[in-house]
Amino acid sequence: MRAPADEAARALFGVAEVARQPLEPVSNTRQWLGKVAIAVTGCGALGILAVAAPFVSPAFRKICLPYVPATDAQVRNVLSVLCRRTRRSALVDLGSGDGRIVFEAARRGFAPCVGVELNPWLVAYSKIKALASDGYPVLKPRFERADLWKFSLVPFDNVVVFGVEEMMAPLERKLLRELRPGSWVVACRFPLPTLKADESHGDGIDTVWLYRFTQHIPKTDR
């Protein structure tokens, strides 16, 4: 005959075994959920990095040209200068960003209008917007992902650039090499360092400078 103490111990042991049985699937479920959470977090971090990298990477280049959207005043000043052109021919915006200047110039009859931008997300945004929009009397604008230093300016009569101070000297040399007589250059935020501007419009950060490229281009005293 079993002692009462043994019976009680066996009963308690049996209860403990039953109580432990559901813990294994719960533990497995938690492990699975943990792995899913880690995977989702990792994918999210990679996605954020992929989107952010083109916006951050300019800071690591020799000449930093970050994406800074044009102000409404800058857009108005650029267009007020361009719209005095009697012959509204080919135009390129170097570092076109979200494409605002290119879209507005195309709506005013400049054709072809091309935006050059290195950031793939901004290029994709501009291309989608161009496909989805209308109101262009001649041609829809076009956008290309390209390095502005390697992009040929020879086909264009009008150049718009929102630059930084460090890039204006090498850009000036590129313009002098590639543009033909009769071309117009509209520089925003910073002027070209040695060429003398024909006109300037606006104040402060909204100032734009117009350069009419002729066979003889005067330079400043700087």
Automatic annotation (TrEMBL):
SUPFAM superfamilies documented for this protein: S-adenosyl-L-methionine-dependent methyltransferases (SSF53335)
Cellular component, GO annotation: mitochondrion
Bilayer-crossing regions: 32-56
Alphabetic keyword roster: Membrane, Methyltransferase, S-adenosyl-L-methionine, Transferase, Transmembrane, Transmembrane helix
A GO BP annotation: methylation
Gene Ontology terms for molecular function: protein-lysine N-methyltransferase activity
Family to which the UniProt record says this protein belongs: Belongs to the ANT/ATPSC lysine N-methyltransferase family.
Protein name (Swiss-Prot/TrEMBL): Methyltransferase domain-containing protein
